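so im writing up the methods section and need the Outer mitochondrial membrane lipid metabolism regulator OPA3 record in one place, dumping it here so i stop losing it
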Amino acid sequence: MVVGAFPIAKLLYLGVRQMGKPVANRIKAGARRSEFFKNYICLPPAQLYHWIEMRTKMRIMGFRGSTVKPLNEEAAAELGAELLGEAIIFLIGGGCMVLEYSRQAANSRRKEEELNETIISLQTQIGELTLITETLDAQLREVNRLVLSLPAPAPTKK
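--- predicted struct ---
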């Protein structure tokens, strides 16, 4: 029983993606504890996300010109940590897709190069065979010319 090539690259990508969730959770936990992460990484995107979300909801419901209250710091830190975690998972997934695409493109290029090499080799062989055929044709014409230049045999008497 012949087993096909094991898709080790796909297994690695799957492993990286599965590891992405716990890594994102640890980064989120660190972001909640660290003041720098909380103030400069989590809070601004969370407030922006909240502002866009509330503005969109208000416009859909028909309220125009209403001001949006910012989230309190705890809720914004939580939302920012969630956004950060989702962004990390998204980046890991996107990176896996890019790696898979580049791997497939490299395989495709390699197969195309092999095919081109085979075509060039076959064209070279055809050229060599054409030259050999022309040489043999010239030799055959020379032999025919020599045979025709021989004197005809005299008829024998019985």
